[in-house]
Design a protein that fits this description.
Keywords: ATP synthesis, Cell membrane, CF(1), Hydrogen ion transport, Hydrolase, Ion transport, Membrane, Transport. By secondary structure, the protein is α+β, with helices and mostly antiparallel strands. The chain has 2 helices and 8 strands. Helices cover 29% and strands 43% of the residues. The longest helix has 26 residues.
């Protein structure tokens, strides 16, 4: 059985289709959703959003926002959503290296927290790219 999934940011609507399963990272931990799930609302953390539709598994980078889960639909309104194929690996690696170098310097606690968030974001992006490159079929991530 499938449920309706909507993925959007304030700037764009990425997806609205029936899917079989999603897995995401909320601020209180990872969660998975199948049709008929108990309703809940949670904040998103920086992480990977996996979407299974029949035999295919698709990956998205997600940072911040909220997820509303209802028995027949899930709505993701994120601050940032990127399809795996939209991720710029070179840019992510450069940002990660810049953050590593900045964290070696004496900086304010606020700046340290900001650079740690950059490390987390870019690490997730690079992990998604790595999984995508090792996938057997372009455009999907099969387990």
């Amino acid at each position: 059985m499938a449920f309706m999934l909507s993925l959007m940011t304030q700037e764009r609507h990425l997806l609205s289709e029936e899917v079989d399963y999603i897995q995401a990272k909320g601020v209180e931990g990872e969660f998975g959703v199948l049709t008929g799930h108990t309703p809940f609302l949670t904040l998103l953390d920086i992480g990977e959003l996996l979407v299974r539709n029949k035999e295919s598994l698709y990956s998205y980078f997600v940072a911040g926002g909220v997820v509303e889960v209802l028995p027949d639909r899930v709505t993701v309104l994120a601050d940032t959503i990127e399809r795996a194929e939209e991720i710029d690996g070179k840019r992510a690696e450069e940002a990660r290296q810049n953050a590593i170098e900045a964290l070696k310097q004496p900086i304010s606690p606020e700046s340290r927290l900001g650079f740690e968030q950059v490390l987390k974001r870019e690490g997730v992006r690079l992990k998604i790219l790595s999984r995508r490159q090792s996938a057997r079929h372009p455009g999907s991530l099969e387990e």
